[in-house]
Amino acid sequence: MKCTPILLLPMLLAGCAWLAPTYHRPQMPMPDKWGTQQAATVPDGGEWWRSYGDPVLDALVAEALKNNDDLALAGAKLQQARAQYKYAFANQLPSISVAGSDAYGRLHLHDDLPVAHKMSNLGFVGGMLNYEADFWGKNASLSKAAKAGVKAAGYGYAAARLSIAAATVKLYFSLRALDRQREILQQTIETQTALLALVQRQHEVGAVDALVVQNVTEQRDAAQAALPDVEDQRGKAESALAVMLGRSPQQIIGQIMERGRDIDALAIPIPTPPEIPSTLLERRPDIAMHEQTLIASNFNIGFARAAYFPTISLASLAGVNNIDIDNLYRATTRSWTLAASMAAPVMDFGRTSSGVKLAKAEKNEQVLLYKQSIRTAFREVHDALLEQNNAHEREQGDGDKETAAEKTVELTRLRLKHGYSSRLDVLSAQVLAQQAELAHTTALLSSLDASVDMYRAIGGGFDTRAPQDRKQK
Q1: What is the predicted pLDDT for the residue at 52?
Q2: Which residue stretches of 245-350 are H helix?
Q3: How does pLDDT run across 292-312, given as a tens digit for each residue?
Q4: Cβ within 8 Å of residue 251, ≥6 positions away
Q5: Which of 77, 199, 389, 456 has the fewest C-beta atoms lying within 10 Å of its C-beta?
Q6: Would you call 306 helix, strand, or coil by DSSP?
Q7: 8-state DSSP, 160
Q8: Whole-number mean pLDDT of the chain?
Q9: 419, part of any domain
Q10: Is 378 in contact with 28 (CB distance < 8 Å)?
């Protein structure tokens, strides 16, 4: 079977994008180091949330990644980008269609022919092939731009996945912290109520003055006033987490959110940025997304420039003709045609040049967005480092205060047992210990949130490099 030149042209020209500028990644000065020599600690598979050691949290994140609406929208955009690429790629290939016609009428022949002028059927059945020769790479540029768009949508999906996972984890941590704060406040109210009753009895016998009673009353009232606020925040955290998980309105209203480990039982990892700062460009899906969008805009310039040049189209028609003149004359013939057409722009009043300027301006915009994403990424890593260090120190300090306060309560009870302290001293020490526990819970939440922010800042295990490139240091 012979292969005609017109069928070889798509394969010869499919890789052409001659009018698109050569792409060069925009360069920005990169730091030599972060101030830490540790390598990033991200679990295999990118499931960094497993580092906290809570199976309930793992299940909630998996549910969010399956049902979240924002992630579903990102997936829909990826499907659209794939369909757009398939359409653009197919536009480089010939189109083959079937053509047919049938007519009924009179065929007028010369009078001297021995054929009566009868009514007859005139029919044609055949195939048609159309192809636009892509000599200037217009369709190839459009195809390559669409292919970069698919990659950008894929990286956008990865960025949305990371964002959804981080938001789910932080909402869960907030819920567990509010649960603990609610318990501590309830205990504090009970302790301060008992303390107030004791102080009032002492006031009645003249052991303390009214100012002491007033101070204890204000402390008890403050704890009671704080409890409804915590309850309100706790309910809102539950509903926000339910929405993040993609649950139904019925579940949002009526279902109780699952709980796992207490906040003080969660492991607190200390993730660190990559050893070489420049590799952050391959670890952040949002940066990769902006770069692919930039690459697509680069090919769009080639598409716009192609409008300066002629459009050359080839068409071929082949089929069978049939003429039937009332059974007196019957004939079947085969025919084919091959035609070429060219349309060259002469005067478009600046339409093409405006299109090229628009494409270049869009590329410049994408360059700025790409550089902006890099700056944002390094700022987030820098801020996450500061946040993580400060939160860790604050958590350790508040933890030491809580331990010291609990030790004071223990010693005060021991002194009470031997008659050296009063019940008032024990209750007062308990109030101070509960306040220290509240502060430590807040510090624990800050430390957990800081670790999530660091995981998110370093890409959460995402990496655009090939496996063999990742092993190279």
Answers
A1: 94
A2: 249-254, 280-283, 285-305
A3: 999 999 999 988 888 888 887
A4: 242
A5: 389
A6: helix
A7: H
A8: 82
A9: yes
A10: no
Residue 6 belongs to a domain = no
pLDDT band at 145; cut points 50, 70, 90: very high
Angle between helices 138-204 and 210-244 (to 10 degrees): 160
Rounded distance between C-alpha atoms, residue 234 and residue 186, angstroms: 14
Structure tokens at 211: 């100012």
Between CA 417 and CA 409 the distance in angstroms is 12
User: pLDDT by residue (tens digit) across 426-461?
Assistant: 888 888 888 999 999 999 999 999 999 999 999 988
Residue 33 maps to a domain: no
Band of pLDDT at residue 38, cut at 50, 70 and 90: low
Amino acid at 37: Q
- Check residue 172 and give its pLDDT: 96
Is 62 within a domain? yes
- 3-class secondary structure, 293: helix
Amino acid at 10: P
Across 305-318, b (16+ Cβ under 10 Å) vs e yields bbbeeebbebbbbe
- How many residues can be counted in the chain? 473
- Going from the C-alpha of 472 to that of each of 45, 120, 321, 462, 467, the distances in angstroms are 19, 79, 68, 17, 9
Phi, psi of 444, rounded to the nearest 5 degrees: -60, -45
Indicate the SS3 state at residue 18. coil
Q: Is 238:175 a contact under the CB 8 Å cutoff?
A: yes
Residue 365: which domain range? 38-101+120-458
The label of the residue with tokens 């001293």 reads 425
Distance of CA 98 to the CA centre of its chain: 44
User: Per DSSP, what are the bridge partners of residue 320?
Assistant: 125, 334
What torsion do the CA atoms of 286, 245, 178, 250 make, to the nearest 10 degrees?
A: 150
- CB 444, CB 28: distance < 8 Å: no
Amino acid identity, residue 272?
Answer: T
Residue 104: is its pLDDT beyond 70?
A: no
The tally of domains found in the chain comes to 1
Q: Which residue shows structure tokens 């480092």?
A: 385
Share of the chain above pLDDT 70, in %: 82
pLDDT of residue 107: 58
pLDDT digits (tens, 9 = 90+) for 327-370: 434 555 666 676 677 777 777 788 888 988 999 999 999 999 99
Q: Please name which of 465, 460, 450, 470 lies closest in space to residue 65, comparing C-alpha atoms.
A: 460
Instruction: Give the separation between CA 196 and CA 199, rounded to whole angstroms.
Output: 5
First to last CA, the chain: 54
At residue 110 the predicted structure's pLDDT band, cuts being 50, 70 and 90, is low
CATH number of the structural domain spanning residue 379? 1.20.1600.10
Alpha-helical (H) ranges within 205-308 are 210-244, 249-254, 280-283, 285-305
